[in-house]
Design brief:
heterodimer; A: about 60 residues; mainly alpha; about 0% strand; elongated; B: about 1000 residues; alpha+beta; Beta-Lactamase; five-stranded antiparallel beta sheet; five-stranded mixed beta sheet; 14 strands
């Protein structure tokens, strides 16, 4: 249950904060891959939560 | 623009041939199952989400709104991140009730065939622009590569091949998972092709057009700024609206719904997709800006043509081929699955609803060809829409028109899962309002080329000047939700809808009612179904459902028949949609109407709870743990227990009762009381109808012997929260009954024994007198005949005295006398004396006895009590022996003990009896013939003498029979004392 709550938090938090990603497009000095790196971290976090959920269900 | 039409045609045909080959390889088993069922295949199949929009539309959107294009990917990633709370419940419903489409789901939840028709119609209208987008990108890509003026014909050829593929592989009635494997593998193949092509194009842009990441960053910070400045970044509200739209798209678009729920059989793979699909989408999204920036660096400035920038990266054929293949792979996968999904929806919710199926000679074939025709029609419809409408619009306009339309179903879907109070009128009203706004605001302008027909209402002037898609999305969804809520709250909800709402709700467990069916077993389902499905199909469907449930066709339990009916409905739902399936079972497999109020099917609820266990969390999990604990207490109760509902349906049959009756609980739970195997139906009926709550010691023949069962009944009073019923405890009182009988018998024997001892005592006096008179006679006469007579009289009176003495001695021998003195006694003499008494009995006269004990062997003991031991052992040996059998008594020294054996040739003892032989009241003799106290007494007396006893059955060297071995001391033991407590049992 806690894992699901974290996922809900991630999704709605992401929904509210995601417009910040756009700022990197035309800002000089900001790495072009920044949104993808953040996205990659979120995927890693989800993978970790999924493993945790599997352990919980055992 | 250097490729010929022939080479592009060959490329297209080659790719589609590979799709056919891939499908064949899976179907024929050329590819191992470990490959085709790998979770990665499923993730890649979900990549069908990345349609031609992801290849070309994203470039167009990125050129116009920068990172705004990411919303397409992030929206879907968000939907899959919520898989455990959003997708898994839908998948569970889809699997349980065989719901293959969004229309099936809505029709099932809102209990109306017309709801399914409405959803199908909306899906069709929404999907047409998306299909046109796929065809248009094919046509445009061919034009970019070849410069052909009108690529529509070639696009039509490719569409025809795609339709052919869908018709061949999309309607195979393969057995279960095989069909899923083929489709998933083919779609996964198309996903691999588009991913590899996009990554290759991205790598080309990054490392060939630019000189690596550092060069790209320098360009972006320098000359690239001029290009970025022209980008109209969406504001936060636009961004969030786009995210919401694509979130809805990932859930609702028919092709994605189909792959996610109809083709996926495992919850685990769906949960795995919560991270693996976002990863796939990340890899698909990553090359988009690289290709865009590379195109801009090479001199492309036009946003309008940005969709096809990949073709401009190089004149090399392979780069253009990659860009074409990426689009073709995306389009073909999307079109195949859309055709499959929509054809099913149109068939089930339009054609079959308008014209219900009649008994066809081959219903399956008829339905298959109908679907094939519809698939071809759907793809052809997409091509026609492209020819008449699509060519005039950019990809963003086409895509958004489709996505906003499907998003109108989002409120209904969320309510379906999380708002049991939602009803059909509310959902339909909201949906119609939302769809009308969408049609007027986006779809009709798309068709007619006119400006949007939507008027901004007063109070919403802040929306003036905003893009049409944004205004339509906000207004349509807001009004849709508002009307939905108001109408749902204001109108009543039907009973059927409420039940379906509980079945769909995430937090609720289905509580179906226990209604009896008219049919009394599985076989009787076939005939009524044959009226609508035809005999062959009816038989196959019933047998399929029986196989699915592992049920016997003759199983007549009401519970099992209800499950069979549900299963048939679910299977027919997969074939013809939930509306038609429900109509068929309601009409042809009706419930029997009785005046009684139906109650909840507790057994079914419990079985569902067992299945959901891993999904329960927090308080629900704790409560379920308690439920399991209490259930286990009842199940493991060492007394038989069963429970009946108010309608006499059996709800529980615990382990002890299963052992007592020899009937497994799983085979009878769900039966009606009168359907229980004899004698239980009649017995429990008596217990239920007994005026008192108890029924004592009822004789029942079980497993070949008579048992005496006592029934205790308790009524469960029903109230608002607790269901009514009856619980019955069944105790096996056979041993107690037998013990009572034995005690009566033993008391009778004891009184006879006392009488015998008294009689013996009374006989002693006259016998002594007779002996004395005989003695006197010998002194009074010299007549040899009289003397001989007197001697014989004396001999006979001596014999009478010995018998009387033995009887009196035995009568006293059963009691242990404190302070008795142990003395050396001859075991041979004891055996002789015992044999003497044994022979007095009338039974066993034809058994032969041999006393082989050497006369000189003595043991230290109480002669009277040892004699009783010997009598008991000999008595048992005699009773066990056949006529003419032999009983041998022998003795031999064994160290400081004497081993005495009594061996018979009787029937022997089985292991089960031998374990309890020294326990009181254990006997192998028929009732009334043995007390079961003999051997415990023997054991007790031998223990008093510090000896031990063993049983060999059969004895070594003999095929049958029993040998009792006693070890008795020949010398006084250390610490021996004679004043031991009374050990009589």
């Amino acid at each position: 249950m806690y894992v699901y709550r974290i996922m809900l938090f991630l999704v709605f938090g992401g929904y509210l904060l995601s417009p910040l990603l756009m700022s990197g497009w035309s800002t000089p000095g900001v790495a072009w891959y920044r949104p993808f790196a953040i996205w990659g971290v979120l995927i890693a976090l989800t993978l970790w939560l999924e493993q945790k959920r599997k352990l919980d269900e055992r | 623009m250097n490729a010929s039409l022939a080479s592009v045609f060959t490329l297209g045909i080659g790719f589609l041939s590979l799709m056919f080959l891939c499908a064949l390889a899976v179907e024929r088993g050329w590819l191992s199952r470990s490959v085709t069922r790998h979770p990665a295949v499923y993730t890649l199949a979900l990549g069908v989400y990345a349609s031609a929009w992801a290849i070309y539309g994203s470039l167009e959107l990125a050129a116009g709104s920068g990172y705004g294009y990411l919303t397409y990917y992030l929206g879907a990633a968000g939907a899959f991140l919520l898989a455990p709370v959003l997708l898994v419940p839908i998948q569970r419903m889809a699997r349980t009730h065989q719901l293959a489409s969004l229309a099936d789901l809505f029709a099932f939840r809102f209990r109306s065939r017309w709801v399914g028709t409405l959803i199908t119609l909306i899906s069709l209208l929404a999907v047409l622009p998306l299909l046109a987008l796929q065809v248009q990108t094919l046509g445009d890509a061919i034009q970019r590569m070849t410069g052909a003026g009108s690529p529509a014909l070639l696009a039509l050829v490719l569409c025809t091949l795609i339709a052919l593929f869908a018709m061949i592989f999309g309607t195979r009635h393969g057995k279960g998972p095989a069909r899923h494997d083929t489709l998933l593998a083919v779609i996964a193949f198309t996903s691999v092709v588009k991913l590899v092509a996009m990554l290759a194009l991205g790598a080309f842009a990054l490392f060939v057009v630019f000189d690596g990441p550092a060069d790209l960053q320098i360009w972006l910070d320098g000359p690239g700024q001029a290009y970025q400045a022209s980008v109209m970044q969406p504001d936060a509200a636009h961004w969030r609206t786009l995210l919401l739209l694509f979130f809805a798209t990932a859930l609702l678009m028919p092709h994605i719904f189909h792959i996610t729920f109809a083709e996926t059989l495992s919850r685990h793979t769906l949960l795995q997709a919560s991270w693996s699909l976002p990863l796939f989408l990340l890899l698909m999204a990553l090359p988009v800006p690289l290709i865009l920036w590379a195109g801009q660096r090479l001199g492309s400035h036009e946003v309008a043509s940005a969709a096809y920038l990949a073709f401009g990266l190089s004149d090399a054929f392979w780069i253009q081929a990659l860009a074409f293949l990426a689009g073709l792979a995306a389009s073909s996968g999307t079109m195949v699955i859309i055709a499959m999904a929509l054809s099913g929806m149109i068939l089930n919710h339009m054609l079959l609803v308008a014209h219900p199926p009649e008994a066809q000679p081959n219903l399956y074939r008829w339905l298959r060809w109908l679907r094939r025709a519809l698939m071809a029609g759907v793809i052809l419809g997409g091509w026609l829409f492209y020819r008449t409408v699509g060519v005039h619009h950019d990809l963003t306009t086409l895509g958004l028109a489709a996505f906003v339309g499907m998003a109108q179903c989002l409120p209904g879907l969320l309510a379906l899962l999380y708002w049991p109070g939602a009803n059909r009128k509310g959902m339909v009203s909201g949906l119609v309002v939302g769809v009308l706004i969408w049609l007027a605001g986006l779809w009709l302008p798309l068709l007619t080329g006119l400006p949007t027909l939507l008027l901004i209402p007063p109070g919403l002037e802040l929306l003036v000047g905003e893009p049409d898609w944004y205004v339509v999305t906000l207004v349509s969804l807001a009004l849709n939700i508002l009307v939905f809520i108001i109408v749902s709250l204001a109108t009543p909800t039907s009973e059927g809808e409420r039940a379906a709402a509980e079945a769909c709700s995430v937090d609720a467990v289905i509580r179906p009612k226990r209604l009896p069916l008219i049919a009394t077993n599985g076989e009787e389902f076939k005939q009524p179904l044959a009226q609508v499905l035809g005999e062959d199909v009816a038989q196959r469907e019933v047998e399929r459902a029986l196989t699915d449930l592992g049920m016997s066709p003759l199983d007549g339990r009401p519970y099992a028949l209800r499950r069979l009916r549900d299963r048939i409905q679910a299977n027919l739902s997969g074939l013809m949609g939930p509306s038609v399936a429900q109509d068929i079972v309601d009409r042809y497999l009706p419930y029997r109407r009785s005046g009684q109020e139906p109650t909840d099917d507790i057994h079914f609820v419990e079985s569902r709870l067992e299945a959901y266990r891993s999904r329960l969390t927090g308080l629900a999990r704790e409560l379920d743990g308690l439920r399991r604990y209490h259930r286990r207490i009842l199940a493991r109760l060492p007394v038989g227990l069963c429970a009946f509902g108010v309608d006499d349906e059996l709800l529980m049959w615990n382990d002890a009762l299963a052992e007592l009756s020899g009937i497994d609980g799983a085979s009878v739970v769900g039966s009606r009381r009168d359907g229980l195997p004899p004698p239980w139906g009649e017995l429990l009926g008596r217990a239920l109808n007994e005026p008192n709550d108890h029924l004592y010691k009822q004789p029942v023949e079980l497993k070949g012997s008579v048992r005496y069962l006592t029934f205790h009944r308790a009524e469960l009073q029903a109230d608002d929260d607790v269901r009514g019923g009856t619980v019955i405890l069944i105790e096996d009182h056979s041993e107690m009954k037998w013990l009572e009988d034995e005690l009566v018998h033993a008391a009778r024997l004891a009184s006879i024994g006392q009488l015998a001892a008294g009689v013996a005592h009374e006989i002693g006096n006259p016998v002594t007198g007779i002996s004395s008179l005989a003695q006197n006679l010998r002194y009074d006469t010299d007549d040899p005949e009289v003397l001989e007579t007197a001697r014989q009289i004396q001999q006979l009176t001596d014999r009478i005295s010995r018998i009387v003495g033995s009887l009196v001695g035995f009568a006293h021998g059963g009691r242990h006398v404190k302070g008795s003195v142990l003395a050396p006694v001859s075991i041979a003499a004891i055996a002789d004396e015992a044999l003497h008494l044994i022979r007095l009995a009338r039974s066993g006269e034809d058994v032969r006895y041999r006393n082989l004990c050497p006369a000189e062997l003595e043991v230290l003991g109480d002669a009277q009590r040892l004699q009783q031991v010997m009598i008991n052992l000999l008595s048992n040996a005699r009773d066990a022996s056949e006529p003419e059998g032999e009983v041998v008594i022998d003795a031999e020294p064994a160290g400081d003990m004497l081993k005495v054996t009594v061996t018979d040739e009787g029937h022997g003892l089985d292991d089960r009896v031998r374990e309890h032989l020294f326990e009181p009241f254990t006997t192998t003799k028929p009732p009334g013939e043995g007390t079961g106290l003999g051997l415990p007494l023997v054991y007790s007396i031998v223990a008093e003498h510090h000896g031990r006893i063993e049983i060999e059955s059969p004895p070594p060297g003999q095929e049958r029979g029993t040998r009792i071995c006693l070890w008795l001391p020949t010398e006084r033991q250390d610490g021996e004392h004679t004043d031991e407590p009374d050990t009589d049992r």
